[in-house]
Amino acid sequence: MAGEKEIKEIYENGMKILEELTSNAHEIQEQMLEEILIRNAGTEYLSRFFVHGQNHKQNFKTNVPIVSYEDIKPYIDRIANGETSSILFADPITQFIQSTGTSEGKPKLIPMTAESFEKRMIKPLLVDLVMKKCISGLDQGKSFYLFFVKPEMETPSGLMASLYTTSYFKTQIFKNGLAKFCTSPIDTILCLDNKQSMYCQLLTGLLLRDEVVRIGSSFASVLARSIKFLEDYWKELCSNIRTGYLSDWIADPACRNAMSSILTRPEPELADLIQQICEDKSWEGIIKELWPEVKCISSIVTGSMSQYIPLLEFYGGGIPLVSPNCGSSEACFGINLKPLSKPFDVSYTILPNMAYFEFLPVNNDGGGMSREFELRGASATESSESTNETTTVNKPVDLANVKIGRYYEVVVTTLAGLYRYRVGDVLKVTGFYNKSPQFQFVERQNVVLSIDLDKTTEVDLSKAITRAKLVLEPLGIMLTTYSSYADTSLTPGRYVLFWELKMKGSNDVPKLDAKIMEECCGIVEESFDFTYKSLRKAGVISALELRVVKHGTFDELMDFYVSKGASISQYKPPCCLKSEEAVKLLNSGMVGTFFSPKTMF
């Protein structure tokens, strides 16, 4: 494990290392690509594209196609089934990283070598250094992070597949490093029972409340779920603190053993204080009340997680929201060098040593690909033909040639056998730090709703809902989360939205004014594109329906996906539901339904 020496150097010279990386971004990228090609040009996959072994970088960009996961899945499946790893790369594979699988169903398997895994462990160390440099007091206490793991899966090859975070939390680098500054004992993090794990981590966080200077989770959805869990269990938690005795239903031996060194005696005064805070009808500012020394809330709140920003700001009571980094299962993209930026202004700086990056231009509003490439080589990527409302595109550009203000889909080539791989994420370039691009994360461009010729993307839906919820804010009503699906059980079909709403002063379901809710429906439809409006006017698509669900319904949806194999620590609420069971679950929590006017356009 290349850990100790390199990790020590990062702790001692982390900011200097960042300056060197970003100042020499282009050179580092070129060196990385050259190294990848020298190592792997002889593999079964790459050798098909190089004539007589000519593996020059320019041949790579000309000959090697840009691909999606489905294109390389047969190769990965062969490796998972036990064939030699030289199919995709020369170095031996050590494990597979699983994608979350929440949005697209079955998780992807991403190959990982020892070197590529170790390189990714540098990112959290750099993030921690940046945050401590920019936010005073973070080195004076503990971090209350809510971390969770998911069971590993053994592939037929004998290699294990797991979430990156699950593998990372089991390393000595984490256990001997960042874990020492966290409130949660490592055994509570590694507990496979998410309910027991969350209960013990919350209990520890409350017991050590005066030492906590930072609170967070991997994704905002996890933190929101944890607060709901606290709402349900604060009385029992207070009872444990008051009596000094852990609840009997915590049966995991490692958890009980870990908690025995923290829950050591009755603390009735602390229990009374926590009870007094939690009994308040309004939980506005609850995080600040329970953890008075907290300097920031650290959790990814960009992209699809941005829907949780108002909720976390409500619970945070003015505590800064920090979105520390951006990446995917395939590769780490970058980190936030200005952690105190407002959530909607966050830009990440590309780390050029994490992968070789290329950038496919997309529409200037970020709302669609420039054209539907048949990405099978240079002839496709160099085409400049435009269609419909899309902009002209020549070919992918490298890191040094992106333009400020433009939108790009990320294409990565990694140390672990992904070559010109479309991740699916879209970035807007906002500037440069030294010579490394800075970007804002934009929601994935995948189509989430489709009826007839209409193709509504995640971005389209997000923008429409953001406009519509503005009607509710003056009334003290918060949209806490949402989802959707295309209902084609009737003719004509319609789009259905699910919204979970709450009053700012309580968790009660707000009184729903039919005219206001119908106005929200209308704003959503007016925000959609020309194709949708034309089909709606022609009667091909019926009036949009909005179903409001009771508080906690989307937590039940998370529990449903976790029970199907999703990870609570990396859960991303599905923008569009494909599962009939999931739709049925949300329908069971419905407290009101509203429609747009039958005729609008």
From TrEMBL:
Highest rank taxon of the organism: Eukaryota
Residues of the GH3 C-terminal domain: 460-581
Domain annotation GH3 middle: ranges: 348-444
Keyword annotations: Ligase
A cellular-component GO term for this protein: cytoplasm
Family annotation (Pfam families): GH3 (PF03321), GH3_C (PF23572), GH3_M (PF23571)
MF terms (GO), sorted A to Z: acid-amino acid ligase activity
Family of this protein: Belongs to the IAA-amido conjugating enzyme family.
PANTHER family in the record: GH3 DOMAIN-CONTAINING PROTEIN, INDOLE-3-ACETIC ACID-AMIDO SYNTHETASE GH3.17-LIKE
Protein name as catalogued: Indole-3-acetic acid-amido synthetase GH3.17-like
